[in-house]
Amino acid sequence: MLIARLGACGLLTIAGSLFAHDPVFAPGPHTLFKGGIELHLGSERVQDDAAVDKAGELSLLYGITGDWVAGVQIPYAYGDSGHGFESTTLLTKYRFWRNDRPRVQESAALLARVILDSGQVRSGATDAVLGLTYGYESLTWYRWAAARYRYNGETDAGVDRGDVLLLDAVIGVRPRRLEYRAPDSVWMLELNYERQARARASGAAVPDTGGARLFLSPGLMWTWRNLAVKPGVQIPVWGDLNGAQRNPDYRALIEVELHL
After folding, report:
1. Phi, psi (degrees; rounded to nearest 5) at 91
2. Are residues 225 and 260 in contact, defined by beta-carbon separation less than 8 angstroms?
3. pLDDT confidence band for 20 (50 / 70 / 90)
4. Which tens digit of pLDDT belongs to each residue from 150-164?
5. CB of 33 closer than 8 Å to CB of 160
6. In the chain, what are the domain boundaries?
């Protein structure tokens, strides 16, 4: 029995270093090994009654230590609302706590992002995101939780676009036994909450801005060795928006991660 438990713990530790990935729409505490490189490709589709917006992104992350990663993200829009490079994002994450025990691994991390005023449409504003994320992983069950706050800078035109609060809760299950070096899958269900303050111009609130939305988001994390594929769909289940605003029918996202 002791040997079996130690073997399961070792398998989880090995799998955690190779297969530990974040959810589709929410951030997680996943980091890289020291000197590791993560190449990340993503494609998003957002559809509503007015238009279909599409975007692709390329991210490159580097493991400064086993608990600290930093990188850059470059998005490109190509939907009905226009096409071209969007704002480049500088990002970092630091895992400050990790607890390993037989068949279970828990961790927590701080994250930060700076969204530069770059790309082909510039507003004069630089935005920033700060967040805290927690993850629980066992041989069968996963849990994640995250809280983020996005500070939207004031544009050159003097418009305060309203800060954003993002809250996430995720549960995942591995339907079959984990086997080392075999393809692995985890099915996930996310609950994603977004609340944005009203935009303001010259001290006055801007109509048809701000409000809250809640999404229910099923997704899948499929991994094989150092490759991961993560598709997911965000479905709005509740909304309290101010005035007349575009509200997506759904958001679809697929991500591919490669660890080098």
Report:
1. -140, 155
2. no
3. low
4. 999 999 888 999 999
5. no
6. 2-259
Q: Which two tokens stand for residue 165?
A: 């609060």
Report, as an integer, the average pLDDT of 125-147. 96
d(C-alpha 95, C-alpha 28), whole Å? 10
Write the burial class of residue 224 (CB in 10 Å: 0-12 exposed, 13-18 middle, 19+ buried): middle
Q: What is the largest CA-CA distance in the chain?
A: 69
Per-residue three-class SS string for 108-147: EEEEEEEECCCCCCCCCCCEEEEEEEEEEEECCEEEEEEE
Give strand ranges (E) for the chain: 37-47, 52-63, 68-79, 82-85, 89-101, 104-115, 127-138, 141-151, 159-160, 164-173, 184-196, 200-201, 204-205, 211-224, 227-241, 250-259
Residue 71 has a CB neighbour count (10 Å cut-off) of 19
pLDDT exceeding 90 applies to what percent of the chain? 74
Q: Which CATH architecture has domain 2-259?
A: Beta Barrel (2.40)
Q: 19 in the Ramachandran plot: left (φ > 0), alpha (ψ -120 to 50) or beta?
A: alpha
Helix boundaries (H) for the chain: 2-19
The label of the residue with tokens 């990188």 reads 71
Strand 82-85 relative to strand 89-101: parallel, antiparallel, unpaired? Answer: unpaired
